[in-house]
Every structure is written in structure tokens, then in C-alpha cells.
Amino acid sequence: MKKLKSKCLVLMSGGLDSMLSAKILKEEGLEVIPLCFESFFFSCIPAEKACKQIGLKLRVEDFSKEHLKIIKSPKHGRGSGINPCIDCHLLMIKTAGKIMKKEGYDFIATGEVLGQRPMSQNINSLNLIEKESGLKGLIVRPLSVKVLPATIPEKLGIIKRDNFYDISGRGRGKQIELAKKFKIKEYPSPAGGCILTDPNYSQRLSELFKRVPKFTGNDAEIIKFGRIFWNKDLLIIVARDAEECAKLTGLRKRGDVVLEPYNFSGPTVLVRKYKKSSQKEMIDCGTAYGFQYAKKIPDDFILKLLPSPKPL
Ligand code: SF4
């Protein structure tokens, strides 16, 4: 009977390392399924672009709710911003592991490089992730295979150690050479597209968490935009351009006050309450903050109050 092709899931961020890992495994003759996770803090758009370039079809899994929980209470601490990289990566691996077992994949692969990131890609973190995910020996890191212990797929002969790489450390030279070999021309910078590593957003989210420990995904999303102010228990967001005006309007929830200038030039302002406040208080507060960024305000100014969206 003809042996079925071995298949693996490759965690795909859209960065060069995950693209290379998928390519290396494809060259090895495996069926490769790139898997990307979506949350309130990152999207799969870069991964979609990357997969188009390397000729693979991306699978997208939304794990926003589970991800939000670890943002609030990471077991393994945070990086330089509010990014809980070890817990986040662990959640991705655990979720991929469940899919692997349920759907009969042989192993999981990642674009990790030993020693590339001080917090999440040192040997202790890689071992911890294997142990806590219950996937010991089933995570292949194609770029660093030769500097890591043999995995189960190697021992079973599914992949051959000699065909993989011995990259470690923070340099990018070997990856860039490999990109040329595989004719990968476009790839994002290693900084990545995760807003949790952005110092400005980290500060906004930390403040939200301090004031509203039970914040929702919508709260986390809306503070990506505009100028942010807090006045007692009111969050005030003043849009900086037309795009942000549209974002605030689109993300408004029932109970929010959204003010749009009607007969003068100025920003859209959203006011959200986290405790009891009257609509009048919210309008007064939003008007005061919005006026600071408005151009000439006429005596007969009119602010349009957008209707609250209907409950879901
Ligand atoms: S950078 Fe962001 S997406 Fe990547 S592991 Fe850290 S928290 Fe998760």
C-alpha cells in the first residue's frame, strides 16, 4: 500500500523565518499547512501575503478570547512592553497541538531560531513550551534543527536532520541567504506586526487594565486609535484624522457618546463610561476635549450626536 504523505502544521506569522521554515519542509516533500492565529492585537494579513508568495494556502484560527485572558494574566511574565510572549506562544502551540492530534498531522513546525529573541527563543523557553504544551519532541524548528536535540519526526525518519539548518543567535545573514535561495523577495522586518510590543500602545493598554481590569476586546481595540484621555471613569478618544474618525464610529458600543462637528472643522470624539455617568456629563466632557483640537469654533456651533448602535 502506498505510504501517505506526512503532513505538518507550520505556525505562520508572515515573517521571513516562518516563510523559510514552511519552504524547507515543503522541499522535504511534506504536505505543509501554514497556520496563523488572529486576535485583537494582530491579524493574519502579513501571513496571507507571505503564503501567496511561497505558494501555500493559509489556515486562519481566531483565538481572540483565549488570547485576551493571557494578556490580562500571563503566567510567564511580559517582555519590554505588555507583550506576554511566552504565554502567547504557548497558547499558539497548544492550540496547534489540539488541531494536530484531532486531524492527524505528524508534527508542528515553527520559524523559531535558537537565541534570536532573549525572552521567548532561548533554550529554557523552548524547553518550557515543549513541556507545558505536552508536545515534547513534536515541535520542529527547521532553521535550528541541527543545534537542538533530535525530534520525534527525525527519529521516525519523516525528516532528515542533514537537510535542515544550524542557525542560532540574532544575526539575519543566513536567513537572507536562504531567502535568495528560495526566491523569497518580499518579507517584513523582524519587528513583526504585533501591537503588544509597541511602547505607546503598551502604555495605553496598561492604563486601561489598571482602571478597568475587566476590559473587553473592543476596549483593547478602540484605544489603538486617536488621542486618549481619562477623566475620572470616562475614557475620551479624540480622532486625529478621517480614518480614525471612521474607526471610532465603527467601534462604538451602546452607551458610548460619539460627537461629530456639524458646522465647523474638528475631530470626532468618543466618550465611554466605565461607571455611572449621565449622557450630559459625557457630552460636556467630550466637547471640552474635542474643542482643544478643533479649528475656529463658531458661537452657534453644532455637534452631531451619533445614535447608539442596537444591542446585538
Ligand atoms: S510578539 Fe506578540 S504575537 Fe509574538 S509572541 Fe509576543 S505577544 Fe505573541
Structure overview:
- The protein is an alpha/beta fold.
- The chain folds into 2 domains: 7-194, 3-Layer(aba) Sandwich (Rossmann fold); 225-305.
- Helices cover 37% and strands 14% of the residues.
- The protein contains 11 helices and 10 strands.
- It has helices at residues 16-27, 45-54, 64-72, 85-103, 123-133, 152-155, 173-181, 199-211, 217-222, 242-251, 279-291; strands at residues 7-11, 31-38, 59-62, 107-109, 139-140, 227-231, 234-238, 257-261, 269-273, 303-305.
- The strands form 2 sheets. A 5-stranded parallel sheet has the order 3-2-1-4-5, with helices on both faces. A 5-stranded antiparallel sheet has the order 6-7-9-8-10, with helices on both faces.
- Helix 2 (45-54) links the parallel strand 2 and strand 3 (59-62).
- Helix 4 packs across helix 5.
- The radius of gyration is 24 Å and the shape is elongated.
- The structure holds iron/sulfur cluster (SF4).
- Iron/sulfur cluster binds next to helix 4.
